[in-house]
Amino acid sequence: MKALVYHGPGAKAWEDVALPELATDSDAIVRVDTTTICGTDLHILKGDVPAMVDGRIIGHEAVGTVTQVGAAVRTTAVGDRVLVSCVSACGACRFCRDRRYGQCNDGGWILGNEIDGTQAEYVRVPFADNSTYPVPEGVSDEQLLMLADILPTGYEVGVLNGNVQPGDVVVVVGAGPIGLSAISGARLFSPSLIVAIDRLPGRLDAAKQFGADVLVNNAEQDPIAAVRDLTGGLGADVAIEAVGVPATFELAVELVRPAGRVANIGVHGRPVTLHLERLWSRDLTITTGLVDTSSTSTLLRLLAAGRVDAARFVTHRFGLDDIIRAYDTFSDAGQTGALKVVLSRV
């Protein structure tokens, strides 16, 4: 089969590899019908994810058809159409019992990281009963694909970790797909104001469509001054960092009021300075996290009911074998306007 293979920082290739095989009785093999590229994949290609090794297949999101299951698989059957979650959950360890699937002792984010991933014609899915979801009636593959990672990540690691409350002022730093997911999730909690901060005009336009009330281009404006003007000098109740570089994390910390909350979503590949010499007295709560996907079932219901619009994330479509061009488009979002690209089996 064909797959996108990682060959070290900056190097990838669409090449022939062996078909995946069942490794344990809880595995399933899934034919990939649609997949996508994540900002985390770009971090991988920059060398920011140490577990990734030469020869591994990239990708952790897919919708597909089950072609084979292990003897212990009970609720997933050959022929089922499924969402493949970015997080694999054993269902039995201490973390899974607490619904913290991202920290699973034997799973977590392993697809396209510690084991071969989904940017391929077929993928082995560990713990298939806990790591796949049936495709609901009336929901397209493209819509469902957004629930593999970005929507639960923005909702859980941004909105829930940030404890967004009705009436809050919420600032989202970074209006890429994860930031837009956080904006969508925050709106479910009726904040008084959502402020989107980004340097790309196209992404700020998208933030407006996704529900941001105020747009701040931090290439042209001082975002700290802008947020303080909006809040009578106090700062935001919640700042959500959705980029993953030191400057945006430090900006998020400066944007919140005393006793505010900072929720970091971004994948960081470099050290970040935490200025405790200024922050020790401000009573801030700072959270980090990997998505648990414990919200996926809730988001599926909201998607099926039309309360969450996932289709608007998709800006570009490619055949699976055109994945190199898809990466070029996705990684040059400033010029292409790409939010999410969808790659489909032709």
UniProtKB/TrEMBL annotation:
The keyword Transmembrane helix does not apply. It comes from the Bacteria. The keyword Metal-binding applies. Residues 8-343 form the Enoyl reductase (ER) domain. Keywords: Metal-binding, Oxidoreductase, Zinc. SMART domains: PKS_ER. It holds the Pfam family ADH_N. PROSITE patterns: ADH_ZINC (PS00059). Its cofactor is Zn(2+). InterPro entries: ADH-like_C, ADH-like_N, ADH_Zn_CS, ER, GroES-like_sf, NAD(P)-bd_dom_sf. Belongs to the zinc-containing alcohol dehydrogenase family. This is Zinc-dependent alcohol dehydrogenase family protein.
